[in-house]
Write a structure and sequence with these properties.
- The complex is a heterodimer.
- Chain A has helices at about 55-60, 65-70, 80-95, 100-125, 140-150, 160-175, 195-215, 220-225, 255-285, 410-420, 425-440, 450-480, 530-535, 545-550, 565-570, 575-580; strands at about 1-5, 10, 15-20, 30-35, 40-50, 300-305, 320-325, 345, 360, 380, 385-390, 400-405, 500-505, 510-520, 520-530.
- Chain A is of the alpha+beta class.
- Among the domains of chain A are: about 55-95 and about 295-445 and about 490-555 and about 575-595, Cytochrome-c3 Hydrogenase, chain B, CATH 1.10.645.10; about 135-205, no CATH class.
- The two termini of chain A are about 35 Å apart.
- By secondary structure, chain B is α/β, with parallel strands linked by helices.
- Chain B has 2 domains: about 50-225, NADH:ubiquinone oxidoreductase-like, 20kDa subunit (Rossmann fold, 3-Layer(aba) Sandwich); about 230-360, Cytochrome-c3 Hydrogenase, Chain A, domain 2, CATH 4.10.480.10.
- Chain B has helices spanning about 5-15, 20-30, 40-50, 65-70, 75-85, 100-110, 140-150, 160-165, 200-210, 225, 240, 255, 325-335, 335-360; strands at about 50-60, 85-90, 115-120, 135, 140, 150-155, 190.
- In chain B, the strands form 2 sheets. Chain B has a 5-stranded parallel β-sheet with strand order 2-1-3-6-7, sandwiched between helices. In chain B, strands 4-5 form a two-stranded antiparallel ribbon.
- The longest helix of chain B has 25 residues, at about 335-360.
- Classes of the chains: A alpha+beta, B alpha/beta.
- At the A-B interface, α1, α4, α6, α7 and α8 of A face α4, α5, β2, α6 and β4 of B.
- Chain A: This enzyme recycles the H(2) produced by nitrogenase to increase the production of ATP and to protect nitrogenase against inhibition or damage by O(2) under carbon- or phosphate-limited conditions.
């Protein structure tokens, strides 16, 4: 059957159906089904969130000051970003103003997360879609050393001996016959294009990045006590500052600041010497593989983040851009208002929920979620053993959020498209520079590789911003302001009987919003619309496909039984399924308890 | 099984010298809190023991346990994965997907029947026929049961697998259920925490590989070496507690002096974990050191014990006349008062749980 979607795609579910479940190297659980024609071109794509936890109903009736801890556990990969969004939502509802130092520390933590998440994503979740570690065994260590020095002259780890050691270790590992994580990879698939030297270089950096990532997160440990899942505070940050007074060892002091500063420098170094050069080098070999753009050239959404001054979340005060681009028209950037009931709405006609009557879209403040797990008439298999889904019916635990009816892409590429379109100087300079270096046209940005490159550029930009806010924090202390928390409204007796608020951030994966209603000191309802809900959404009522689905269309798959191209594009979004699939009604409707076998 | 290389062989074949190997054994001994006498024993074990296959499955979770695991500094996560275990299935990190991933799982189960360790991150939801968490088109609980059947032992990583954690907080809409309530015929080691400390995770694995046995477990099934003492017992701010010096409000003068966070709701007195000794992220800090109280994330049902900012002993609804503030001040003047307090707090805690659950049922 051939279907035309309102957002411009022709879907044909004839031909061969390919099912990937589980989609691995992502956070959470996901399934993907595609149809390919006789030329192995994808003609239909179906993305399914396959987990649901129901955190919002759990939040109902709790202390709003605790909500950050619950929502932080939505995701341990983008750890902290839900917590930040939550404290912002509660502060917005209660009218709490945070001190400048708290704003700087929160920004440093959020930027630190962006960098950590982007690095781990690229090297540990995404790289194996481009890099073949088995092929690295064929590399000449001397030639690898030359390649390393050519792509990144200032990276110290570049000697032939260094690469030979790594290669030897890899060789013994492969020869042991226990391939562990590399087992059953598609290592002889022609979709892998790197020469052995580039494979060895990148595999080496897989290991370097694994060592580095545990250093990066120490910034969270210093300010938040641990990572994953550091601690946050409504009204500011929990860590006090005591630079040089009695008991300073128990607070943020000079030694702690020095440690933060040294880690910030390590991030900057790694971005400059390893991450960006790798993306350019690897991207160079795949420069003709420009599939996967999907919605990025058409519809992008960003809420903005990293406020320069505390408590001002207007577009002009934020370093990461805010706005919406639709219909492929980059000449206009629309402002986004999370409070406007007409702008953001969620649809469930293809999701395993019901609103009672079909065809409705609801704003998060007025949303309803009632689980309704059922397979369509054309699904194959059984209720508890799905072979093929029926996408004409309900097929995912993810809802379909839309901005003014448009399916939107969110994430680093969306931020960079919105930033570029709004004339953001730093972003424009970075993007133009990368395209010039790689001799690629502007349109090349709208691709799987463009998404991967935008993430690397953003990591570099966030590294600089992290330093900016560190300097700002220190300068503020020098000026005598060491305040980190505003406790005027800590006591619930100071709160109004009823309040509602919105918190928004740019999580590593994209625009993240929390909507909270507070009544008599307790959470009356809580809603999260998260990045992978946008990107991984199923069809909506009108039939628009979501960003994952759109990005897979028209891609050529060399060997459908080894779906490396599909993984490549899905991974370029950095899917986070635990985040995307937990929405519950503001009324906190409980699910009916079903009979357990 | 005999074709499996020993650790020592693997480490040697990967260019690690005998000297480095012995150093590694010493560090392992130290990390496990064992004396130097254990070093030769560890070395011997690693020279003769096979590299153990590990299957790591994911249910309803947030992946914080995996993220914590890769933060391990001693041993480094890359050394664990490349040299110590054979991580044959882990959907978060493995290269293969879909059918090939499922095939890797099946192959490992068949080839290493009865000899692999099953690591579980997250838990199975039982409502909706288990379809709140789907893997390969089927309920995750089926994959869990299937992989558990031939496992040598099971590690329940984190609060999710051990106790249920956030998705099992009231009213637990998906009926998320901890592993030991679904798998009842296998030895299970609980390593709770949200997440557990990285070096505790690798320490438990290293212990099992080195000694070829389960660590000593407490009554709840947690390794005694890491979970037998309260955060409070080893907290460096403990003297302030004993002296009655407390933070009274966020960012007040006392907070800046690093006083005790007890009045800010710190759950250290009722939480069994290694945070105040091992600390986090290579010993950089732990929650209390960074100014926020412990939220008790390694305790069963910690989400349902009232606000994180409620004082643990300020529980007037349970008829406690002397609240812990007074107890704390009194303790300063009484030798051994701390011990008595702990006994009191423990009793309070179980009373609190009972009262809360009876309240919920009512």
């Amino acid at each position: 059957m051939v279907v035309q979607t309102p957002n411009g795609y022709t879907l044909d579910n004839g031909g061969k159906r390919v099912v990937i479940d589980p989609v691995t190297r992502i956070e959470g659980h996901m399934r993907c089904e595609v149809n390919v024609n006789d030329d192995n071109i994808i003609t239909n794509a179906v993305s399914t969130g396959t987990m649901w936890r129901g955190l919002e109903v759990i939040l109902k009736g709790r202390d709003p000051r605790d909500a950050w801890a619950f929502t932080e556990r939505i995701c341990g990969v983008c750890t902290g970003t839900h917590a930040l969004t939550s404290v912002r939502a509660v502060e917005d509802a209660l009218g709490i103003q945070i001190p400048e130092n708290a704003n700087s520390i929160r920004n440093i933590m959020q930027l630190n997360l962006e960098i950590h998440d982007h690095v781990v994503h690229f090297y540990h979740l995404h790289a194996l879609d481009w890099v073949n570690p088995v092929n690295a065994l064929k590399a000449d260590p001397k030639a690898t050393s030359e390649l390393q020095q050519a792509v990144s002259p200032s990276h110290p780890l570049s000697s032939p001996g260094y690469f030979r050691d790594v290669q030897n270790r890899l060789k013994k590992f492969v020869e042991s016959g226990q391939l562990g994580l590399f087992k059953n990879g598609y290592w002889d698939n022609p979709a892998y294009l790197l020469p052995p030297e580039a494979d060895l270089m990148a595999t080496t950096h897989y290991l370097e990045a694994l060592d580095l990532q545990k250093e990066i997160v120490k910034v969270h440990t210093i300010f938040g006590g641990k990572n994953p899942h550091p601690n946050w505070l409504v009204g500011g940050v929990p860590c006090p500052i005591n630079i040089d007074g009695v008991g300073g060892v128990g607070a943020i002091n000079m030694e702690r600041l020095n440690l933060v500063s040294s880690i910030i420098d390590k991030c900057i170094e790694f971005n400059k010497n390893v991450y960006l050069p790798d993306v350019k080098a690897i991207g160079g070999f795949y420069r003709n593989w420009l599939y996967g753009g999907g919605l990025s050239s058409q519809a992008c959404l960003a809420y903005g983040d990293i406020p320069e001054n505390a408590n001002d979340y207007s577009a002009g005060n934020m370093h990461l851009p805010r706005g919406a681009v639709v219909n492929g028209d980059l000449s206009t950037v629309y402002d986004v208002d999370q409070r406007d009931p007409e702008q953001i709405q969620e649809f469930v006609d293809h999701s395993w929920y019901t609103y009672g009557a079909p065809g409705k879209g609801l704003h998060p403040w007025d949303g309803v979620t009632e689980a309704n797990y059922e397979l369509g008439p054309n699904a194959k298999g059984t209720r508890t053993n799905i072979e093929e889904l029926d996408e004409a019916a309900k097929y995912s635990w993810i809802k379909a959020p839309r901005w003014k009816g448009h399916a939107m892409e969110v994430g680093p590429l969306a931020r960079y498209v919105v930033g570029y379109a709004s004339g953001h100087e730093d972003i424009k300079t970075q993007v133009d520079g990368l395209l010039r270096d790689m001799d690629l046209p502007f349109e090349a940005l709208f691709s799987t590789l463009g998404r991967t490159a935008a993430r690397a550029l953003e990591s570099e930009y966030c590294g600089r911003l992290q330093k900016h806010f560190f300097d700002k924090l220190v300068q503020n202390c020098v000026n005598g302001d060491t305040s980190t928390a505003n406790v005027e409204k800590w006591d619930p007796s100071t709160w109004p009987a009823e309040a509602k608020g919105v918190g928004a951030t740019e999580a590593p994966r994209g625009a993240l919003g929390h909507w909270v209603r507070i009544k008599d000191g307790r959470i009356e309802n809580y809603q999260c619309v998260v990045p992978t809900t946008w990107n991984g959404s199923p069809r909506d009522t009108a039939g628009n496909i979501g960003a994952f689905e759109a990005s897979l269309m028209d891609t050529k798959v060399e060997r459908p039984e080894e779906p490396v191209e599909i993984l490549r594009t899905l991974h370029s979004f950095d899917p986070c399924l635990a985040c995307s699939t937990h929405v519950m009604s503001p009324e906190g409707d409980e699910l009916a308890t079903v009979k357990v076998r | 099984m005999s074709q499996i290389e020993t650790f020592y062989e693997v480490m040697r074949s990967q260019g690690i010298t005998r000297r480095s190997f012995m150093k590694y054994c010493s560090l392992t001994a130290a990390a496990l809190g064992l004396g130097p006498a254990f070093v030769p024993r560890i070395a011997h074990a690693m020279e003769t023991k096979p590299r153990t296959p590990v299957i790591w499955v994911h249910g309803l979770e947030c992946t914080c346990c995996s993220e914590s695991f890769i933060r391990s500094a001693h041993p480094l996560a890359k050394d664990v994965v490349l040299s110590m275990i054979s991580l044959d299935y882990d959907d978060t990190l493995m290269a293969a997907a879909g059918h090939q991933a499922e095939a890797a799982l099946q192959d490992t189960i068949e080839r290493y029947k009865g000899n692999y360790i099953l690591a579980v991150e997250g838990n199975p939801p039982l409502n909706e026929d288990g379809m709140f968490c789907i893997v390969g088109g089927k309920p995750f609980v089926e994959q869990l049961r299937h992989a558990a059947k031939d496992a040598k032992a099971i590690i329940s990583w984190g609060a999710c697998a051990s106790y249920g954690c956030v998705q099992a907080a009231k009213p637990n809409p998906t009926r998320a259920t901890p592993v030991h309530k679904v798998i009842t015929d296998k030895p299970i080691i609980k390593v709770p925490g949200c997440p557990p400390i990285a070096e505790v995770m690798t320490g438990v694995i290293t212990y099992m590989l080195t000694f070829d046995r389960l660590p000593e477990l407490d009554r709840q099934g947690r390794p005694a070496m890491f979970y037998s003492q309260r955060i409070h017992d080893k907290c460096y701010r403990r003297p302030h507690f004993d002296a009655g010096q407390f933070v009274e409000a966020w960012d007040d003068e006392n907070a800046r002096k690093g006083y005790c966070l007890y009045k800010m709701g710190c759950k250290g007195p009722t939480t069994y974990n290694a945070c105040s000794t091992v600390r986090w992220n290579e010993g950089v800090s732990f929650p209390i050191q960074s100014g926020h109280g412990c939220i008790g994330c390694s305790e069963d049902g910690f989400w349902d014990q009232g606000s994180f900012y409620d004082r643990v002993t300020d529980l007037t609804q349970f008829g406690v006349e002397a609240n812990a503030d007074q107890v704390g001040v009194a303790a300063a003047g009484v030798v051994g008062g701390g011990i008595a307090l702990h006994a009191a707090v423990s009793a309070l805690k179980s009373a609190q749980k009972k009262t809360q659950s009876s309240k919920e049922e009512a």
